[in-house]
Amino acid sequence: MPTQEKLPEQPDDDGNKDTYNPLSEKDRDKEKFFLKMYDSIESGFMFSCNKSGTVHATTLVDDVIETMQLNSERMSSKIKKLIRTKFNFRPAKALIAELMEELQDQTDDTALEVHEVHHRVALGAKGQIFVDLHGDGNVVLEVDKNGYRHHDFATEAPSSSAHPE
What we know:
This protein is an alpha+beta fold. About 30% of the residues lie in helices and about 25% in strands. The protein contains three helices and nine strands.
């Protein structure tokens, strides 16, 4: 008959959350900071998925509701900006990836509302039409009677082309 392994003795739970923690104090501080960043990021977004199960994050940016795929470059940029603004440091790519992975894990374990995400079209004040191309960046096509202009707000470098009439 095989012998059962015994788990190491753990102190009784006296209601103190930090009673038993196998991490070093430095590791606990890193974990607490990570969780603080995660909570700050997670609370700034509403998560939903489309019918195929792709998770989207929605947030309010300068009075505009913005929706992006959770695993997109745009979401990564949003997280970087949030951390720079709130915690005053530039996060490494590995930290961003870890935060995005944690968000994905948490949304995988949550029953999300199903919303379809569509390309947006808007009419401008001067009769132009704006088409949100819904790429990884914040790319908008502006169309008017003189032609079209391609705006990539992620790089702030608008380009334009005119069509002959």
